[in-house]
Write the structure tokens for this entry.
Amino acid sequence: MEDQTNPPHRSPVDYATGTGKLGRLRCFAALLAAVLLAGASAHSGALALRDTWRIFKAGTPDFAVAYAAKLAPARAVLPDRGTVGYVSDSNDEGEFYLTQYLVVPLVLEKGPRPDLVLVNNHVANPTSTEDRVYRVSRLADGSAVYDFGNGIKLIDRRHRP
């Protein structure tokens, strides 16, 4: 008696994927697609690793490290605790949260409402200032403006005359 569940002229692949040549073609196409996807993924990962290695070898800091260095002079002038306003010419939410992280334990609030306001101007022309040196000027209302020469300014309205 012959096995009726698996006749000799049909393979298990035929039962799993369909009948005959069409089923084998589908199986081959799925296998080819999986191999191509894996190859594309490996290629993408290799390119990302190559670019990361080049940046590392060149000594170029990533955005967060460069921004932390840009904000460091202002951070030295800020108080240890309190609330600081944040005004920027960019709508980048990530930069706001990075700034919040870099000024912890201060609370960063969007807008100019607090007495201390951190201003981030991306289009400002860098001015030459010595390391950790800033320029101080006064606004018409008596507020002090600390200009760190790198697009970061701090407006201090705490000690108005």
